[in-house]
Amino acid sequence: MRTRLHLHVVFWCVPFAIFITLSFPNVGPAVLENKIGPVSPNHSTDSYGSVLTLMPWIKSEGVVLWSILAVLGSVVGLVRHRIRLFIIGILPGLILILSSPIYLRAIDVVMPADFARPTLQLLSRNHLSRLPPISRMALVELTDSGLWSIFCLLTAMTVVYLVPTLRFSRLLVVTGLLSPVILYLITYAFSAWLSYMAHITSSLPRLLLQVVPVGWLAIGLAWASPKVEPGKRAFD
Questions:
Q1: What is the pLDDT of residues 58-109, one digit of tens each?
Q2: CA-to-CA distance for 40 and 79, rounded, in angstroms?
Q3: 3-state secondary structure of 191
Q4: I need a surface site. Which of 26, 176, 197, 215 has the fewest CB within 10 A?
């Protein structure tokens, strides 16, 4: 029993202690940067990487979402020449993701196997043939006005509006909106349920809710964006 208590303390407290240590010097300046201007540049990028520590859930969709956000943050870090500090900032989250299976095994907890491990053998067993039915099911879900009202329509119109502008910040938001949905749908091709369609019905609405805030962010960005002259379109 005492060993389990020590495992709990080490697994949960140590990464968050690292998280607080790394993020504390950046959070205050990042808030000031976004409130009153660039007091000290790029602190918001560093804080973004640190806050990702709160994202890595033990379930697979959390890992997918964390990975997407980490990749997008790395792109921003490269553009702002802060990639080294960003990588240091995401280390606690990466440690949590990699160590969680060891932790669960140590306390005798077995996670349900909702998905099979992707392999070439699985792909050769007609798992790719699941993608068209999965896409049709997703389309039915997204066009259900009883669940989403006009949100999905507004989001689709926003994506169509933002992509041709070729602005770096807008493309980043669109990527953060679409890539989780696409990857979630692909993972259903490796569902270990007897009926992968039942798996989609039971979990897809919950997964789509995770990207709803990004959809509203994109809608707000499109609404607030000034018109750009064609000759001035650039990655800003």
A1: 677 788 888 998 899 888 888 888 888 788 778 878 888 887 777 777 777 7
A2: 16
A3: strand
A4: 197
**Could you tell me the sign of the dihedral formed by the alpha carbons of 72, 101, 22, 24, in that order?**
positive
CA within 13 Å, CB half, 221: 24
Q: What is the dihedral of CA 129, 187, 143, 223, to 10 degrees?
A: -130
Helix (H) or strand (E) holding 141: helix 131-142
For 183-226, the pLDDT digits (tens) are: 999 989 888 888 889 999 999 998 898 899 899 989 988 887 66
Strand ranges for the chain from DSSP E? none
Q: What are phi and psi of 124, to 5 degrees?
A: -75, -10
Residues present in the chain in total: 236
Q: Which amino acid is at 229?
A: E
